[in-house]
């Protein structure tokens, strides 16, 4: 069985020594003397067990402690110095963050059981297997099953040279993945040229893509190389490909088939060697069905397809991502230490329509505006998410029924018989429902 790791936070350097002296088999502890050092140690390797020593001579700052305990990738154990009533002084929300407690003098058997339980729980929570190293995750943050699947797909994609189509909601990391494919593929030394097909007026797209010869049109005083040529030996990233006008779709298809282009106003066919990576947040299959996107181009682009999971489909990645964004956005000397446990719960409860970008923006905004040492749900603009209880099925059903009946009644000018007919229920049933839902006729 492999070695089990833990971080031992021992501010006084006395009590922890007693634990180390027990030389528990299988366990290796990294000893740190502050909560800040513990944050760092935990960021470098995870998942781990965290042990915190409560030493009466070296009290720990409660807010920093709360920030550390808000990490969900660690199981926490508290070790109290003999006779030290620290537990009684800790707020109960912090106490709840600990898996178990023990007081010195240490009992070897009790400690082993406690550590074993915490380790077992950690394994259950990280059933996906050992964490993927940051290099193996192409610079992306996420350890959830959908992200692991994504990394495995990227590993295959970087080994071939086919076009790629990346789908996924807004802010879910499509461009990040496109850049990663470039950086880890054989084209890493070539350029990465990004172009947003939705951001350029249709009249300009053609020359942006293909370039033009001198004198091709008024104002074309010299030859201009288009994006396809500029991406030679590298990657052309076509963002929002769904916005490409239909006639440009045909031109792009020809490029993918013949690997040649003709500049606007030119006759020469120029050989090009580019890998096209396209991204879209719209469903292109539907766009094809509606006649807005060419089916043959879709097949050509979608030789390998990738779909990024929405953040709400990988809630377990939120603590890790939040920590990463916090460190990226926090300016030097900022008094903010981390997230309160209420803030972390609110982050995990939010539905993230804007995905990782929204997460980043909320954290950045909170860091700038917060007056607290620990970010609160209010700082993140998530006070409602933090307090709102999830609706019960019963309440949800009632609100749907009420809406339906009220709309029908309105349509039928409050004629109950007509409404009942429209809804497919008897008059008696409808009256009963109106009564139950307290609908005023
Ligand atoms: N897995 C991840 N790990 C770390 N950062 C991420 C991850 N996914 C997205 N981001 C960050 O989130 C932000 C948005 O990502 P990106 O621009 O790639 O999204 P997008 O899907 O292209 O969005 P849009 O559809 O709005 O163009 C960026 O700052 C990016 O670095
Ligand atoms: Mg994008």
What are the SSEs and their pairings?
Layout: E1 4-9, H1 15-21, E2 27-32, H2 35-44, E3 48-54, H3 62-69, E4 74-80, H4 86-89, H5 92-95, E5 98-103, H6 108-125, H7 145-159, E6 164-167, H8 174-184, E7 192-196, H9 202-210, E8 211-212, E9 224-225, H10 227-230, E10 235-239, H11 246-258, E11 260-261, E12 270-271, E13 275-280, H12 284-289, H13 295-301, E14 304-307, H14 318-329, E15 338-339, H15 341-349, H16 355-369, E16 374-375, H17 383-387, H18 393-411, H19 416-423, H20 427-436
Parallel strand pairs: 1-2, 1-3, 3-4, 4-5, 6-13, 6-14, 7-10, 10-13, 15-16
Antiparallel strand pairs: 8-9, 11-12
Helix pairs in contact: 14-16, 18-19, 19-20
The protein binds adenosine-5'-triphosphate and magnesium ion (MG).
Structure in words:
This protein is α/β, with parallel strands linked by helices. It folds into four domains: 122 residues, Rossmann fold; 163 residues, Rossmann fold (3-Layer(aba) Sandwich), CATH 3.40.50; 77 residues, Orthogonal Bundle (Helicase, Ruva Protein, domain 3), CATH 1.10.8.60; 44 residues, Arc Repressor Mutant, subunit A (Orthogonal Bundle). Helices cover 44% and strands 15% of the residues. It is built from 20 helices and 16 strands. The strands form five sheets. A five-stranded parallel sheet has the order 2-1-3-4-5. It has a five-stranded parallel sheet with strand order 7-10-13-6-14. A hairpin with an 8-residue loop joins strand 11 and strand 12. The model has no long low-confidence stretch (mean pLDDT 89).
